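RECORD TYPE: inverse folding
INPUT: structure tokens
STRUCTURE:
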């Protein structure tokens, strides 16, 4: 059965799509969760981050100071590149291990990789299908402000820090438009689920 990459910009409804696919029986592997796990206290990744960006990136309890690291690299393409060179290979190894485990447990299962940075990091991996959650920038901006409580400035900065909608849509096999109601989005996900057994 297929290995599906699911991506989308911030506040694009990607998590809603992932949840619905899980309700249908898909195994959803969450890239953000793996990032957190490979950066656990004592991990090689955390040691490399401290070596590269300074020991002050580690809190007293041994965990990563995500806010400080984020502030240090935000808007600095070179710094982001150095961080990604540490984190992405570890995430790729761990995600591959989870994909293999899911297919070994059930060769007929659908595995969905919920990955925000697909265009940036994993676009050329051998996915059977790439699904993009899409809502226009202004809609996503409004969601960040009204639903997540961000300031207008922070919302704009978060959106601007990601690749453009055009770049994501360019690699999509299927686009799920999340601009409408939740029911509209769910109906599109249900239709996608019906198609998945046909994907080779």
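DESIGNED SEQUENCE:
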């Amino acid at each position: 059965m297929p290995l599906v990459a699911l991506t989308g910009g911030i506040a694009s409804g990607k998590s809603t799509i992932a949840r619905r696919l899980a309700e249908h029986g898909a195994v959803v592997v969450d890239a953000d969760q793996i990032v957190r796990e490979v950066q656990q206290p004592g991990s090689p990744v955390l040691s490399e981050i401290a070596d590269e960006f300074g020991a002050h990136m580690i809190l007293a309890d041994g965990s990563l100071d995500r806010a400080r690291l984020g502030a240090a690299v935000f808007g600095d393409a070179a710094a982001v590149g150095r961080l990604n060179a540490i984190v992405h290979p570890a995430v790729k190894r761990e995600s591959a291990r989870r994909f293999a485990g899911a297919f070994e447990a059930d060769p007929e299962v659908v595995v969905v990789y919920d990955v925000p940075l697909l265009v940036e990091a994993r676009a050329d991996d051998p996915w059977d299908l790439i699904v993009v959650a899409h809502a226009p920038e202004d809609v996503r901006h409004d969601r960040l402000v009204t639903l997540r409580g961000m300031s207008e400035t922070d919302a704009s900065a978060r959106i601007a820090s990601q690749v453009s909608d055009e770049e994501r849509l360019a690699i999509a096999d299927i686009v799920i438009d999340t601009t409408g109601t939740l029911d509209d989005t769910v109906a599109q996900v249900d239709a996608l689920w019906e198609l998945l057994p046909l994907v080779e």
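NOTES: The mean pLDDT is 93.
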